Amino acid sequence: MRIALLAALSALALPAMAAVPSTPAAKVEAHSVVHPGEGVTVRLPATAKHLGSERFTLYEVADAEVHVFVEEDAEKKIARVYWVQFESYLPEKPELSYNYADGNRPIELGGVRTWLRSNPVPTTGPMRAGSDREHVFNILSRAGYAIPPAVMNVRLVQILDDPTGTGKGRRELMVIYSEDLALSGKTLAELTTDGKPNAQWPAIEQGLIDRATKAVRIERR
Question: Are the C-beta atoms of residues 156 and 116 closer than 8 Å to each other?
Fold first, then answer.
């Protein structure tokens, strides 16, 4: 009885976490993702095909939604993936914030400070349950696409409540541009050492970044 009473009192002491809506706040219009509440539009190439969107609670701390697009090669295989994600910490987690100033390169994209990171990565191996990556891979799988065993990514992040460009805040827009690594003519073993990009990576990296920043346009009102 005492244990049950303590459990009931503990439950009363904790604020109830508001449910995250299942409907994404952003809308897909042709080849663009438009978020009216944030005043942000992400424009992608006309050749990018929308596969699906999902909104979910990420790790019980954030409201997240993903919008997934692909471009195919002549054999209907994935050539490029565009992963657009809006994410914000829940009001019940006021102590949490993002910090992209550490470990990311600042660039200007659409006149806004944007935080960039690029690398070649495997797509196989264990995946954290409930992760944003899991949601994206599920969308790709349901659409009938086989994910390449290795890709090269450019991750672009803008903090939506960071007017001075510090890289810190509680609301973010993340766009990940991925290409099948096989298109580079290199293997993951050639470009990485102990799981990290090696001296051969910079020769490929800048071209990848140029293609990503040309393909993705972010407009803020």
Answer: yes
